[in-house]
Amino acid sequence: MQCSKCRRDAVIFQRYSGLHLCEHHFNRDFEAKAKRAIREHRWIESGDTVAVALSGGKDSSAVLFFLHRLLGERRDVRLMAITVDEGISGYRDPNQARKIAESMGVPWVTATFADEYRITLDEIVARKGTGLSCSYCGVLRRALMNRIAREHDVTKFAYGFNLDDEAQSVLMNALRGDAERLTRPMREAEGMVPRIKPFMYIPEREVALYAFLHVEGFDLAGCPYAGDALRGDVRGILDDYTYRHPATKYSLVNLGEALRGTERPETKMGFGICERCGERLPERQELEHREVRDATAGTAGARAPKNDVPSGTEFEHRRCEGAKPCGKICRTCQVLDEVRKGG
User: Fold this and answer.
1) I need a labelling partner for 203 at 20 to 30 A (CA). Which of 135, 165, 287, 288 fits?
2) What sign results for the dihedral spanned by CA atoms 134, 49, 107, 62?
3) In what ranges is there compositional bias, type Low complexity (predicted)?
């Protein structure tokens, strides 16, 4: 089949656009979408240090190559790669990630669950089973990567999340009835390095092709513990529906983008301090309205009453200003307590 834009042989057919694209026009289309995502969200600015969360898989390897091509000649932006070894036997040797980064001349650093937490994901699964393995892993991995990023003055974290990942997240939140996540803007809590997702408008199969065309040595194996996750079920449902309705994933991502601007104005992300590890502690923080109408008294301009918060609840220390420990522990420490209990 010939390319829809020239007479060269096509390497891919985009069902949602109806176009056959050769390698040259595929690369142009792919990189234009990624650049548009960066431009629309103003994700990269002069003076940034961008770290790619490099697992050694196709998505992270592709985003590293793309950002290296995009930023390689810029002197005002620094690029590096960070790899976390969760401790999963037989799954992704960190040396693969190192070789990929070194092949592009990108600085690379690594850390392990075993060194940081004195426990591996294999040990967590042995104690707790696979039911919540993705949740435990996600919390611990992100906390560790965030700490490493701060040590290297990283200002942006680049992830290889693609269109499929984003669409799945929107559908998962809808199925769970999680209005808060659906309407929460893409911003990070105080103390967390902001995340960027250049491939959020690009289907997974196109990210895979881009990786095959430009990167050698990446790993195609999936995590052995991911099969029990809700995301796996949603992926199957969404892929089946998208086969019959090709633009579905784009529609879901567009919906998610629209909903993120509808968060209620009386809430925002604040922070306290974890009394155990000293990390900043994201939490929901109530804001007072500047002007509210007291429905009972009919008084204009009255301040909203501050609701009493029962001791021991999630919001007990919501007004902690971070000057001293707030009597709570962060999610990372909670997860470590949970997984070390066993059983």
Assistant:
1) 135
2) positive
3) 295-304
Residues 6 or more apart whose Cβ sits within 8 Å of residue 50:
44, 67, 71, 77, 78, 79, 80, 154, 155, 156, 157, 158, 196
Please state the pTM of the whole predicted model.
0.82
Q: Which residues contact 114 (CB under 8 A, 6 or more apart)?
A: 85, 87, 120
Q: Name the DSSP letter for residue 191.
A: T
Known binding-site residues equal 53-55, 59, 84, 160, 165
118: left (phi over 0), alpha (psi -120 to 50) or beta: left
Distance in angstroms (rounded) separating the CA atoms of residues 330 and 273: 8
DSSP conformation letters of 251-288: HHHHHHHHHTT---TTEEEEEEEBTTT--EEEEEEE--
Distances in Å between the alpha carbon of 15 and those of 21, 245, 250, 278?
11, 9, 12, 50
Token digits for 240?
A: 């089946």
The number of C-alpha atoms within 13 Å of 31 and in the hemisphere containing its C-beta is 16
| 8 A C-beta contact, residue 97 and residue 110 | yes
Phi/psi at 244 (5° precision): -90, -25
Over residues 54-102, the pLDDT tens digits come to 999 999 999 999 999 999 889 999 999 999 999 998 888 899 999 999 9
pLDDT class of 2 with cuts at 50, 70, 90: very high
Buried (b) or exposed (e) across 201-234, using 16+ Cβ within 10 A?
bbbbebbbbbbeeebeebbeeebebeeebebeeb
Q: Alpha-carbon torsion 69, 72, 78, 84, what sign? A: positive
